[in-house]
User: Fold this.
Amino acid sequence: MVRSERADRECYQNAPGAKSLALNSLARRAAGQAESAVATSGTVYLSALPTCLCGAGGIWAARTLSAPPQTTKARYKALLEPPGDWQPALRSFTSSMKIQTNNSIAVVLPPPIGDSLIGMVLVNNLVRNGYQPVVFGWVAEQLAEWFPWVRVGRADEYAGAFEVVIELRPTAQGSTLARSGKTLCLADLPAYHGPKHHMVDRIVDIAVTTFQLQDVTRSNGLILPPGVVRRAAANRVVIHPTGSHPEKMWSRPKFLALARSLERLGLKPSFLVAPNEFDAWRGISAHGHEVNALDLGDVARWIAESDWFIGNDSGLGHLASSIGVPTLTLFMRRGLARSWRPGWAPGEIVLPLNVVPSGKLKERLWKQLLTVRRVMSGFQVLRKSNPTALFR
Assistant:
């Protein structure tokens, strides 16, 4: 079943200290180089190690302390070394990233479809470099045919079985899989929040800099199963009009108008929704529109056999891009598109008219400011570019 992406995909934007050079440097260099990090900054942070890394404390909590320019390096260092076992925990965190190929490794994917597919980039790179991770998550389970090289596990069968457990973000099951009760959480690494713009590139950066992998790719390794024929339904345009966040969903009347515009071009629009959304959309079939609600594996097949994909900022756009189908994605803001646009096959994004000054107003008014004509113009750009699938 296509489940809702309930996790907040923008949590990285609000992570305390995510944009702080001082905190990022401290986390990246860890205890051995903390002095040089704070020596170059006028801001000091007192932080607790993340729960997912140390089994204690909260997420990185940053607190700014003002200090005059003449404050010495020694005073900064003293402020950064609170009493207790904080420094040993930090050293443990640093060394724990150096995993061995013979370690038992689990990768726990978050529930959102798009996040899981991006997380599979790390899984693919681990396998390419000789590791044998077991992957957990409903997306990996339902797309097992599309990732035949992946070992998929069920959490209740692997309690406490792994020396190393990697998560993109903290999950309920992650710590239960680890012998130590601790996990390596990518969302607590500075590279997860930048400086690379796109999330796929951030995961690749983590693979190189944190895990020190040598043979690295942007691909998540998705493979078309036997029997799936690419573009078998020529001229079919999959339209995904829903998503996990209502504020990110373009209006139904505009999607229906878009479908009629596509039909006038001789194309075949096909609406695709989750099974739990079907009752709300089944009525459009009375007006001649095709609408389907499928399990995730069948969704992948339906998209693969289509020519194009148009949808809101949601996980199915990432799935289409993984498969190699060109995508057109509707975003409320450019900043979201910069990090979360589908990142594999050729694709275009469409943004509302840029006529309001603030981000909050853009989020409130984007549905009104994004017209059917503007979306059709974006689709024509994508259609005329004669793209081919990009697999790296």
